[in-house]
Amino acid sequence: MKSLLKVTNLSKSFGAVPALRDISLEVMAGEVICIIGPSGCGKSTLLRCINHLTFPDGGFVELGDVYIGREPMAGGKVRMQSHSQIDKLRPRMGFVFQQFNLWPHLSVLENITRGPIKVQRRPRPEVEADAMVLLTRFGLADKATAFPAALSGGQKQRVAIARALALEPQLMLFDEPTSALDPEIVKEVLLFMRELAESGVTMVIVTHEIAFARHVADRVIFLDGGYVAEEGPAEELLTNPKNPRLREFLSQIDSPVMGCSA
Amino acid sequence: MDFDFWGMIGAFPSLSRAAFTNLTIAIVAMSLAMLGGTTLTILRSFGISIVNGAISTLISFVRGTPILVQIFLFYYGLPAIGLDLTPIQAGVLAIAVNSSVFITEIMRGGLSGMDTGPVEAAIALGVRPRAIWGRVILPQLYIRILPPLVNELTTVVKGTALLSVITVIEVLRTAQQIANTTFRPLEPLLAAAVILFALNLAISQAGKHLETRFAARRG
């Protein structure tokens, strides 16, 4: 398998508080990786540092064979790319947010076509035809002219995924894509993401859905305190966790609390 | 009461013609003010301290002095520094600057309550900063602040009557001229009030219509 994303010694602090410490990981083309861990462990920060919504303080991010943001130079020096250089690389990674972040003033179709038309400068008729194919595949063809406010949470998240896919990214990043959804809709979106994973899209998913990670992920990464505390094949890592913190984390997530299953 | 009803009716034709001047001035001033208010808002977003200092000085001056004084300052002040403007031009500029300040403050309020998520989504897709303003922030912002903007437009329409003091022949000055020849000030002034009221009523109704139309596009 070919390496697609390579993160090397990534670090990030917010003021004096370190969020990521020396994170290294590699994602192969076609692989699905789930990142799990307690709140505040740096999961979202890691994802945001990969596409530079947040700028890392140290380390490198490589997608395919291009560096994003910090570039190593001869003699151990580091060159920082300009914002416009980074803007040009960002469409290679689709980003899906917990809060969907659709553009409320644009219709569903416009939400999907704006990127390819404005960023990639592709001709509108072609982009619109492609977007309709995506919407039909996602079961949203009848919502093309609706505005985001009229959609359910699950529909919004599917539109957000379609918007990211429309730029034909090499990699999809999901930041807790089901955490803002009603429980009965979570399943709908997870099933949908599973289909996406089976179609060969490379995905890095920050999630609290352990069962989903077990079934869909090739590998799981457990982050704790800004470190990669454990990583390995999903089934193995989730069934026989070696790290005591991961054992504790999994038992807390799986056990029912106050009569409600988390 | 000694009120000449037909005298009031008789004032309407010439006042209505003069009201076109008010409407034109209001439209031009409001367009300039939208441009000015938007420019000030974008300038302020860069966070350059000298620029922001200058803008907040302008804001406190415009907010803290009567618009009538500002109109006089433009009318007498600009020729003094070599800018020879007609009364209408000076008046339009004065109202536009005044209104720019109020619009940028309205926009600031609108921005502060706006979700930053859609902007992040645009950044993540690689949309450039200029397009983020033009395609993501401003359209959402204008939809959000439509009600106070319509309110500001009615203020601008009322402000055009003040240009009567710098010899602009608009609806109020025309009413005063009628009063000077008939020696009956109440009738033409009341007619002028009715005309300005009708203009603003039409504007606020149109505003309500737009609000309904854009309701679906609000987040």
Number of strands of chain A: 12
What shape does the CA trace of chain A take? globular
How many helices of chain B?
9
Order of helices and strands of chain A: EEEHEEEEHEHHHEHEHEEHH
Ends distance of chain B = 55 Å
Order of helices and strands of chain B: HHHHHHHHH
Q: What is the helical fraction of chain A, as a range of percent? A: 25-40%
Query: Superfamily at the CATH H level of chain B?
Result: MetI-like
**What is the level-2 CATH architecture name of chain B?**
Orthogonal Bundle
% residues in beta strands of chain A:
25-35%
Structural class assignment of chain B: mainly alpha
Largest interface: A-B, 32 and 23 residues
Shape of chain B: globular
The percentage of residues in β strands of chain B lies in under 5%
Helix content of chain B: over 70%
Report on this structure.
The complex is a heterodimer of chains A (262) and B (219). Chain A is α/β, with parallel strands linked by helices and 262 residues long. Chain A is built from 9 helices and 12 strands. The two termini of chain A are 36 Å apart. Chain B is mostly helical and 219 residues long. Chain B has a single domain, classed as MetI-like fold. The mean pLDDT of chain B is 95. Chains A and B meet through helix 2, helix 3 and helix 5 of A and helix 5 and helix 6 of B.
Give keywords.
heterodimer; A: 262 residues; alpha/beta; Rossmann fold; 6-stranded mixed beta sheet; 4-stranded antiparallel beta sheet; 9 helices; 12 strands; 27% strand; globular; B: 219 residues; mainly alpha; MetI-like fold; 0% strand
Concise account of the structure shown:
By secondary structure, chain A is of the alpha/beta class. Helix content of chain A is 35%, strand content 27%.
SSE order and pairing:
The complex is a heterodimer of chains A (262) and B (219).
Chain A: E1 3-14, E2 17-28, E3 32-36, H1 43-50, E4 58-63, E5 66-68, E6 70-72, E7 78-80, H2 83-89, E8 93-96, H3 108-118, H4 124-137, H5 153-165, E9 171-175, H6 183-198, E10 203-206, H7 210-216, E11 219-224, E12 227-233, H8 234-239, H9 244-254
Parallel strand pairs in A: 3-10, 3-11, 8-9, 9-10
Antiparallel strand pairs in A: 1-2, 1-4, 4-5, 6-7, 11-12
Helix pairs in contact in A: 3-4, 3-5, 5-6
Chain B: H1 5-45, H2 49-64, H3 67-80, H4 87-112, H5 117-124, H6 129-144, H7 146-160, H8 171-182, H9 186-214
Helix pairs in contact in B: 1-4, 1-7, 1-8, 1-9, 2-4, 3-4, 4-7, 5-6, 7-9, 8-9
